[in-house]
Each structure stands twice: as C-alpha cells, then as structure tokens.
Amino acid sequence: xxxxDHVDLELLNALADDPRATxxxxxxxxxxxxxxxxxxxxxxxxSGVFLSFERAMAPQALGYPIEAxxxxxxxxxxxxxxxxxxxxxxxxxxxxxxxxxxxxxVRVAARDTKHLFDIDARILSIDGVERTETSLVMGEVxxxxxxxxxxxxxxxx
Length: 157
Description:
Helix content: 40-55%
Shape: elongated
Structural class: alpha+beta
Radius of gyration: 20 Å
Distance between the termini: 17 Å
Number of helices: 6
Largest sheet: 4 strands, antiparallel
C-alpha cells in the first residue's frame, strides 16, 4: 500500500463522517466526478485500506449478553492449526496474534456464564493450547476508531 495523498485522505474523512455514503453523495460532497471517486475507492479497497465491509452487530442483540477476552498460550508450531480451529468456534468474534507472554487474545460472546465456561473448555481442548485466562468485558471504554489517526495524517500532509 502506497502513501495516501490529499484526495485519498479527504475521501476517507468523508467516509468516516458517513460510512454509508454512496459514491454519488461522496462525489457531490467533495466536488469530484463520480468516476474519480469510484476509481479512488477501488484503489483504496485493493490496497487494503478498508478492513471489512461486514456490518458490525452487537452480540447482545443476538442473545449473547456476555463478552469475554480469553488470553491463550499455545505451542508455537501449532499456531496456524489452532487459529483455524478457533475460526470454527461460532462464539469467537475476534482474535489477535500477540507478541509477549500471551500468544492469542480471543474475544468471545456467550449466552451466560455456563456457556462461557463451555467455550473456554472448547478452546482448551484444542490440541496445542496450553493455557487460557478469561476476563469478562465490563464495557467498552474506547471503541475501535481511526478518526484521530486520519486527522493526524491530514495535518501532516
């Protein structure tokens, strides 16, 4: 992914303001042609700027009111297979590979504490998982955001 220019940053800023904006609406807002906006959006998508187009949904609305972070320690040689097996656990909503003492940080959603216990047991039963440590999510204090980074990048250009 190459460096973003002023036009890319303005387009991303407009999308941050209105993530559901159409190409036509973005073109009007930015004073650009529809084709220019469409081409820029395609370039940004191909270069990996956009992480996901999946709509974020609250697990609570789906009947999973408990969220937890599970720190997972694994045998390093088994990490790819363990990751594949974790992806087949429906209650795993996100996972990150980490450096340091914890190998994976897995975010899960559960119906109740018994269900959470069962999810943890399922993760522990994966061959190569050596240990887990579960922490309940009490609330999100800072949600995923890139607006401050976008503003910083715009100031630097």
